[in-house]
Amino acid sequence: MSELSILERPELRRPLLITAFAGWNDAGSSATGVIRYMLRRWRCETLAEIDPEPYYDFTQARPTVRIVDGERVIEWPRNRFSWRSLEGGDRDLILFSGIEPHLSWRAYIGCVLELCRAFDVSGVITLGALLAEVSHSRPVPLLGSSSDDELARSLDLAAQSASGYEGPTGVVGVLSQAVREAGLPSASLWASVPFYVNASPNPKGALALLERLNGGLDLKLSLHDLEVFAARFDAQVQAEVDKDPQMVEYARRIEEQLESEEDGAGPRSAPAELPDAESMVEELERYLREQRDR
Fold first, then answer.
1. Region of poorest pLDDT, from 133-137, 142-146, 209-213, 263-267
2. Would you call 20 helix, strand, or coil by DSSP?
3. Which of 179, 201, 207, 285 has its CA 20 to 30 A from that of 232?
């Protein structure tokens, strides 16, 4: 029996499914921040849900307690599909906000594909965010690819090619593979956020992803609130970095490296001048402890 519960069946036109998962693929909550913002701005209705019981270790993803009208209510980890009808276009949206499961990934992905079949989904966009050697003072770099020419043009992505990566992957990678095997058009869009900025949520990462989706898919979504939030975030991050000489040095070296790559002159500092891995980890751990204490 499927763990997918379809709560309503609206008439959707060639819906496009956009997904984001909390967890390993969501640095700074940038990807899930995109879905949260869309749901809040549009007040989308719930389309379907995946029962969390078979897929989570609740000692890691704990349920929460809320007081509603004087009564205690337990809220379990949610994997929710919502929908939005787009005016003036030829297709609608299904938005999925989930949590990377701990167990039974193949069955979990099967629930997502079941919903795709139930609503004749025309394509799937997976969102993600990763920690990278990028500068907090620059625009957030985006990367991704698409197996579909139309999605690639709309989102300004490269055509999908065979990846040479070998190693651990997350639920986004597993879903992308399953979607391709099911013959559905797909695209993957990722934001790169600075590894030395320990801040979640990171509205700047979410804003970069949303701007690309908003323009490419003609969503006509107002981003003013998020732009203001991102500007304040930028100022706060700069103030925190300025307090720590080691973080200032990290930021300076990354900025120099990026500038040298743009100039085509190669790195300006020899690799030996960079801090060794052990000292960098110790410094980052110290920084994280200070942030936690504050």
1. 263-267
2. strand
3. 285
Report the predicted TM-score, pTM, of the whole model to 2 decimal places.
0.84
Which tens digits make up the pLDDT trace of 100-109? 999 999 999 9
10, 48, 50, 62, 114 from 6: Cα distances, Å:
11, 4, 9, 24, 10
Cα atoms in the Cβ-side hemisphere of radius 13 Å centred on 61: 19
| CB neighbour class for 277 (10 Å; exposed up to 12, middle 13-18, buried from 19) | exposed
CA 186 remoteness from chain centre? 16
Q: How far apart are CA 249 and CA 270, in angstroms?
A: 15
Which residues does residue 134 pair with via DSSP β-bridges, in sequence order? none
**Phi, psi of 26, rounded to the nearest 5 degrees:** -135, 60
Residues in Cβ contact with 49 at an 8 Å cutoff, skipping those fewer than 6 apart:
4, 5, 7, 78, 79, 80, 81
CA dist 283 and 294 (Å) reads: 17
pLDDT digits (tens, 9 = 90+) for 44-79: 999 999 999 999 999 999 999 999 999 999 999 999
The SS3 assignment for 190 reads strand
Q: Model confidence over 131-183: pLDDT tens digits?
A: 888 888 888 999 999 989 999 999 998 777 666 777 888 999 999 999 999 99
CA 181 – CA 175 distance, rounded (Å):
10
> Which residues are registered as beta bridge partners of 87?
none
Question: Counting beta carbons within 10 angstroms of the beta carbon of residue 227, is it exposed (0 to 12), middle (13 to 18) or buried (19 or more)?
Answer: middle
Q: What's the pLDDT at 134? A: 86
